[in-house]
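Exercise 7. Given the encoded structure of a 465-residue chain, write a plausible sequence.
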């Protein structure tokens, strides 16, 4: 098509930003945009940003520096390049972005991106327009349906935001400010979207929320449903074989949700349950509102319900006031729990959060040393976990062509990438495979039988026996 505008979208940050980028792509596709993977070719560059740590936020400005050059070159040759900043930096900094980077034509927050097509037009006459409202209308109602293809190719796995925002206010975290108050989408809206995704070939859905297990949406019966109930309902959708959810808070692991882990074979035996720290003093200072032993007990309950469950977590080292002995408590907790994988970060002072202004900030070299020790432990746990897979039989969802032309790559129930011979099946198939080898971050497997192309949820085996 001639005359079609091309957009380049780049996302930083968490899975919710990945989801938002897809939805923004769908909104722009409905407005006549095509995707490009080259900034040089783009008519519109959209940066979907993350504010969680200083490094993430600063990346945006270095990218905007490069884009400014591109925009100036374009103008010299008589063309036009529009630049938009979306996501959590947009929400947190608003007009400050345009002041610091005048090449930005518009700024759009995570709750107003359904207005993207309209904003790109407005910005032509009024560059520097900022829309970071929390509008009364629901962006999800205003966005195009997921039945139509967007700009970002869809594979057999997809994200689906069911809950957004956070009311927990951990002392280090910007999310309650960038994403606003906790809101759950109604069950009917979630089901409709999941059905559209399943009809387009999606086999696995990961439900997203900054606090997804605090989900309490209006149910099909008019009552509040919790996440466990929502998962049960989603498992009934034809074609959906696997369900996951992320990210969870330990305080919201309700009995109903734990029961879903026991009763729902489609719910994968892998749970991301961040704890951040293992010292009660640090946890209190972080305003996490639970102790390390509370967390241990939650894990015990989950493991009792689903013995083959694997855990992942998030950790922060060097929170203000964290002593050597506090840090040793974190190491002990990691040893007690045993993680299949984990993310760990040095504490980053974020403007506007309660912890940023505290005395007792931990020196950078101490943070680095603690992070190194923690990551060494977490990496060795994850390597052990991967090694323990060798010889086991499990179901693999084939996701994409492999790096080698004779391979295809899928995911285990535990989210590990699994490489198989191309003859194992096609993208979207679920295959039973025996794990032959384990590397640092992936597994090599051999398919046992022909693929099951039309899985029904009740046939799905959660993980290795
Ligand atoms: N809602 C999730 C976390 C969302 S943010 C939860 O409650 O666990 C993702 C991760 O980023 C957090 O788990 C935390 O480990 C890390 N993080 C958040 N703020 C941070 C900060 N100021 N410095 C370093 N890491 C941070
Ligand atoms: Fe941030 Fe805490 Fe909310 Fe998670 S629970 S998003 S860490 S404030
Ligand atoms: Fe970053 Fe916003 Fe996600 S701050 S981690 S993109 S919610």
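Solution.
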């Amino acid at each position: 098509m001639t005359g079609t505008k091309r957009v380049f979208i780049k996302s930083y940050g968490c899975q919710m930003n990945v989801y938002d980028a897809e939805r923004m792509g769908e909104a722009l596709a409905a407005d006549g945009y095509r995707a490009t993977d080259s900034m040089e070719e783009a008519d519109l560059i959209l940066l979907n940003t993350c504010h969680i740590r200083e490094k993430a936020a600063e990346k945006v400005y270095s990218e905007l520096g490069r884009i400014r050059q591109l925009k100036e070159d374009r103008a010299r040759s008589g063309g036009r390049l529009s630049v938009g900043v979306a996501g959590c930096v947009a929400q947190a900094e608003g007009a400050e972005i345009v002041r610091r980077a005048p090449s930005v034509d518009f700024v759009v927050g995570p709750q107003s991106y359904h207005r993207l097509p309209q904003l790109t037009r407005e910005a032509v006459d009024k560059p520097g327009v900022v829309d970071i409202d929390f509008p009364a209308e629901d962006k999800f109602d205003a966005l195009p349906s997921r039945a139509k293809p967007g700009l970002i190719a869809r594979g057999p796995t997809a994200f689906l935001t069911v809950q957004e925002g956070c009311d927990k206010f951990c002392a280090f975290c910007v999310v309650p400010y960038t994403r606003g108050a906790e809101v759950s989408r109604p069950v009917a809206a979630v089901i409709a979207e999941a059905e559209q995704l399943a009809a387009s070939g999606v086999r696995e859905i990961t439900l997203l929320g900054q606090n997804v297990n605090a989900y309490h949406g209006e149910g099909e019966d008019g009552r509040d449903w919790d996440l466990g109930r929502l998962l049960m309902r989603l498992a009934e959708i034809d074609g959906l074989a696997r369900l996951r959810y992320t990210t969870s808070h330990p305080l919201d692991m309700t009995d109903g949700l734990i029961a879903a882990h026991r009763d729902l074979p489609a719910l994968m035996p892998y749970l991301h349950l961040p704890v951040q720290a293992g010292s009660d003093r640090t946890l209190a200072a972080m305003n996490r509102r639970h102790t390390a032993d509370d967390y241990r007990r939650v894990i015990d309950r989950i493991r009792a319900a689903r013995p083959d469950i694997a855990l992942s977590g998030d950790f922060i080292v060097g929170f203000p006031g964290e002593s050597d002995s506090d840090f040793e408590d974190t190491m002990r907790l990691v040893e007690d729990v045993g993680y299949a994988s984990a993310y760990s970060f040095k504490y980053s002072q974020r403007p506007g959060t309660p912890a940023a202004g505290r005395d007792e900030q931990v020196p950078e070299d101490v943070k680095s040393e603690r992070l190194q020790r923690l990551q060494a432990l977490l990496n060795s746990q994850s390597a052990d976990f991967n090694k323990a897979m060798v010889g086991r039989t499990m179901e693999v969802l084939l996701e994409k062509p492999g790096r080698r032309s004779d391979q295809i790559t899928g995911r285990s129930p535990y989210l590990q990438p699994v490489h198989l011979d191309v003859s194992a099946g096609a993208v979207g198939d679920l295959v039973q495979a025996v794990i032959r080898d384990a590397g640092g971050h992936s597994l090599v497997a051999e398919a046992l039988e022909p693929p099951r192309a039309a899985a029904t949820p009740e046939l799905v085996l959660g993980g290795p026996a």
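Remark. Residues 454-465 have pLDDT under 50 and may be disordered. Students should compare their own answers with the one above.
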